[in-house]
Amino acid sequence: MDAAETARRCADAMYAADLASQQLGITISEVGPGRATAAMTVTDVMVNGHGICHGGYVFTLADTAFAFACNTYDERTVAAGADVTFLEPVRAGTDLVATATERARRGRSGVYDVTVRTAGGVTVAEFRGRSRSLGEPML
Amino acid sequence: MDAAETARRCADAMYAADLASQQLGITISEVGPGRATAAMTVTDVMVNGHGICHGGYVFTLADTAFAFACNTYDERTVAAGADVTFLEPVRAGTDLVATATERARRGRSGVYDVTVRTAGGVTVAEFRGRSRSLGEPML
Amino acid sequence: MDAAETARRCADAMYAADLASQQLGITISEVGPGRATAAMTVTDVMVNGHGICHGGYVFTLADTAFAFACNTYDERTVAAGADVTFLEPVRAGTDLVATATERARRGRSGVYDVTVRTAGGVTVAEFRGRSRSLGEPML
Amino acid sequence: MDAAETARRCADAMYAADLASQQLGITISEVGPGRATAAMTVTDVMVNGHGICHGGYVFTLADTAFAFACNTYDERTVAAGADVTFLEPVRAGTDLVATATERARRGRSGVYDVTVRTAGGVTVAEFRGRSRSLGEPML
Predict the structure, then answer these.
(1) Under a CB-based contact definition with an 8 Å cutoff, are residues B77 and B13 in contact?
(2) How close is the nearest chain A Cα to the Cα of C80, in Å?
């Protein structure tokens, strides 16, 4: 099984168990070693007290792309933490796409960058995730 | 209207419009100038591909407490960004409580710390939010 | 040897080898389990292109307080990362004090908060450090 | 004056006043709109209590590259904050190169990524800076 195939199988196994992402309508559109793309449409119930998408949902989409990207090596890996910068308010009805790429891996730790954009290409958030491998296979 | 009353009225106005928090079952149990406490029960649909609560929901609860804490001065304030460290996996069915306190405010910028604990008092995440006031009244 | 004595001995051992802190005139004025206070005077050669103290030196003072705080348990511990928010410009000649306290420890990981203030009590920066123990004794 | 020329002149003006960078032996080897490269050799007095380069100096080099990158538009811009992940210990005598690139700008705020590598190409730290323009020209 090559690296691309491993990445795809890990993503399939993760997604099947990931009720949270399924229930939010998040789809994983592209996966490869150290990278993943996740998409979600902002619904009316994702709106906060300012009438815009709750930052928690923007974070959740980015965090999902990150989780799939860092779990592409058949090594069960969890999020140790993350930093997010919100650049634009997001309205209900917006289609969002989060693209996660690996910046560094060292031992059991990794750093992943995720950019969240509207379908029209406007960046709405920049996320950086810190991963930690548990040292167990996923498949 | 004193500071405590202002804080409470801002929280009431925010919560009434905050469909996201309402829909997640988040309640705001305590609010004062620069501080807020938010609670949520982790449900079965919040579980991710590792069988534990999706970090996005832990973040969302913390981000909600932060949003209510930084909007207690009758000045519409949004999240510019945040950093989160995940300390413990969280199982479905867990009652979580997020306590937000103000660490610093300077001009239109603020820094808020949020600790997320189980009802039993175990800290599961530490969050630090960066706020930005829009310079508009809320009430 | 009790916890306070262990903390003090670790700090003494660290400081004796810490040429960087010594050369910057940083002093460690108080140490206990999970906490440390470091002080430094901003000199003329610490000024950046905007005529104020280079953020790197404010960070370095905070990072030093953090390093001493997380090395108080006789377990060699390094910085995995940190986040800093700069709140005020700092002029040459200012006496700075950085106070580090432990927020959480879990296994080999820890989270420490450091506040950097002027001698007059004005907060100039808020720092949060992430530590990682190497699992080796220090003394 | 075109964008590349503006960037270069801003860097020259900054560097002339930047005693901190000069005194640390930091050189700015490449500057363009939204980007800059800074280099520094780790000296014996930069070593901390663990016998490796104090994280403050690695941060300072990254922060310098960031400062030059975000000041390339003839708009005086300061660091609002930054996050750093340390990936490798760095020995005295190591030549370090920090490369800063712009990830996003929105109004007066910006996000810049800085990678710090040894001359041999090993990444030792990943830094993300948050900038804030003061709305004043630099030249």
Answers:
(1) no
(2) 10
